[in-house]
Amino acid sequence: MNRLIVILGPTASGKTRLAAQVAHRLGGEIISADSRQVYRDMDIGTGKDLAEYRIGDETIPYHLINVTDAGSDYNVYQYQQDFYQVLPQILDRGRVPILCGGTGLYIEAVLKGHQFTAIPIDPRFRAELDQKSDGELLQLFEQTASAYTTVADTSTRKRLIRAIEINRYLNENSLTEITPMPSHPNYTVFGIDLPVELRRQRITRRLHERLRHGMIEEVQRLLERGIPTEKLVFYGLEYKFITNYLEGHLDYDTMVKRLETAIHQFAKRQMTFFRKMERDGIPIHWLDGLAPAETLTEEILTTV
């Protein structure tokens, strides 16, 4: 099978377990599409759940997890390059590639071969933009419209700043100067759809489980290794709020409450981006997240 199977969904939807089941049945290997699981030693906070890759006596091969050190920079362009090194290797082994994750920007970039990701970062320009309010940034984004505008993800302040940076570059340079990225047109995308209330329950339960099982200690170890607080805050969610707690900026109860709210908001943004992917021409076969993983596995197998 030369087809790429994609399994996406919001956080806590059971993507990894389902992907592992499908890989087990098809003789597949999983390529992670998670923008934070690429970092080593960021395990609990990113939800790597590596035990999910073990089914009976088999360990499902996985890729693009633990590929760079915590504290380093990694972006969607690097992800594209890494993805297109791994994919042909899996196919050459006669295995089935299964792309699994919740970072829609990464998934869309490799399916469509976006060239915009190669546009260089301008730290000085970013610093100038960071002084502006969200409203001012949105206005500037609209004023600097380019070929990128219609596909831009502006769901977070960080991505909005990047979108303005790309717009400016395209308005000042030719896109032909950028090396094109390959795309992979032969794919089938499956999405896990959960009722909002169940998704919220799972997020809350999982958050408290991770807090009990060492997530705060994980962030403490990263700080003790000398990783700057601003870098951990940049990684967002668990690393942002727990760092603020450990630095004394938040008490424990406030940290947990704000973190829980932020994860709920993040899951909502994930679903918004997936719906945008559909509008932009990537068909998604939505699966009933209430069904057992075994049932969903059979549905995927009969579709592909």
UniProtKB/TrEMBL annotation:
Keywords, comma-separated and alphabetical: ATP-binding, Magnesium, Nucleotide-binding, Transferase, tRNA processing
Signal peptide annotation: none
Residues noted as binding substrate in the record, renumbered to the chain: T11, A12, S13, G14, K15, T16
Keyword Iron: no
Site (Interaction with substrate tRNA): T103, R126
Gene from which the chain derives: miaA_1
Name assigned to this protein: tRNA dimethylallyltransferase
UniProt-listed PANTHER family: TRNA DIMETHYLALLYLTRANSFERASE
NCBIfam families: miaA (TIGR00174)
Binding site residues for ATP: G9, P10, T11, A12, S13, G14, K15, T16
Assigned protein family: Belongs to the IPP transferase family.
Keyword Electron transport in record: no
Reaction equation(s) it catalyzes: adenosine(37) in tRNA + dimethylallyl diphosphate = N(6)-dimethylallyladenosine(37) in tRNA + diphosphate
Organism: Nibrella saemangeumensis
Reported function: Catalyzes the transfer of a dimethylallyl group onto the adenine at position 37 in tRNAs that read codons beginning with uridine, leading to the formation of N6-(dimethylallyl)adenosine (i(6)A).
